[in-house]
Design goal:
It contains 10 helices and 11 strands. By secondary structure, it is of the alpha+beta class. The strands form 2 sheets. Strands 1, 2, 3, 4, 5, 6, 7 and 8 form an 8-stranded mixed beta sheet that branches. Strands 10-9-11 form a 3-stranded antiparallel beta sheet. Strand 5 and strand 6 form a beta hairpin. The longest helix has 14 residues. It is globular.
Length: 290
């Protein structure tokens, strides 16, 4: 049974687990039997990429390469003074095979990286995630800022978010219409809330590559973070940090030293703000160059 993952790096307690929602989910072995790899599929570690447009595919392959040993998977505060990560090496034909089972095959793509790529490319994606040998379908529509899943948002957020594994990434069709009286098999939830929670409580504790390197960070003027975050809004030290970033640009190393913060939590906050389109990143600011 899925268990609630407690908040260890944020100020609010975890939401209650929707413990019965996983009962109708497909098992991993059944999923693999019904959705075998197809000709043309590409593997990024254990994640299968199917029918993606070339630019998005290249973006995800680059993220996979950077996550391998020796790649630039992310930047913590103690590395913030160095140059930003490059595009990373291409796949190694000796270790990366079309089945993802080579000696160098990784655990798969980071879920936050996949969602960040969907936002950058404006690409609606159908994801299949795995936890405890159950497969959870999640479809995201960046343009509409919504996510569909058989699990409710409360149910998704009650999962052990760091352990979610991305099995399959493929394009999503048009979002089902939400007309009065329609009964959809999926829950329709705000994408912003899911992104925020994954940034704060998911597996990734380093900066996304797009905002890493020598930089100063500031919250965008007029950013309305409460619109999508609702009751998961900013409180305590998170709220205080956001208010400071509204007034002044600061490098990662400074943010990591603020009360209630460390390098991991600072990276998570900045990733969350970036995914809400609420972060200004300046690589030429004096604070970044000092």
């Amino acid at each position: 049974m899925f268990q609630a993952f407690p908040y260890t790096a944020v100020d609010r307690p975890a939401r209650g687990a929707a413990s019965t929602e996983h009962s109708g989910l497909q098992g991993l072995s059944e999923f693999e039997y019904q959705r075998p790899a197809q000709v043309g599929d590409v593997h990024a570690g254990r994640t299968r990429l199917a029918s993606l447009n070339p630019s998005l595919l290249q973006d995800l392959q680059r993220a996979d390469a950077c996550s391998r040993p020796g790649g630039a998977a992310g930047v913590h505060a103690n590395a913030g003074a160095g140059p930003g990560p490059g595009p990373g090496p291409g796949p190694d034909p000796d270790t990366d095979t079309d089945t993802g089972t080579g000696a160098g095959a990784g655990a798969g793509l980071d879920l936050l990286e996949v969602l960040a790529a969907a936002l950058r490319h404006g690409q609606a994606l159908q994801l299949h995630l795995e936890l405890d040998n159950r497969v959870i379908p999640v479809a995201v529509w960046p343009a509409a800022r919504v996510v569909h899943s058989p699990m409710s948002l409360d149910g998704l957020l009650a999962l052990r978010l760091p352990e979610l594994r991305v099995l399959l990434v493929q394009p999503a069709g048009a979002e089902p219409p939400a007309r009065p009286g329609d009964t959809l098999p999926n829950h329709r939830s705000p994408l912003g809330t899911l992104l925020w929670e994954l940034a704060l409580r998911g597996a990734r504790g380093t900066l996304l590559a797009q905002i890493a390197g020598s930089a100063a960070y500031r919250v965008s003027p007029g950013a309305e973070l409460g619109a999508e975050l609702g009751d998961l809004g900013l409180v305590g030290t998170l709220a205080a940090a956001v208010e400071r970033l509204r007034r002044d640009s600061r490098p990662l190393r400074d943010i990591a030293a603020w009360p209630g913060f460390d390098p991991d939590r600072a990276c998570r906050l900045l990733n969350g703000l970036y995914l809400q389109a609420a972060l200004i990143v300046s690589h030429n600011h004096p604070q970044a160059l000092g």
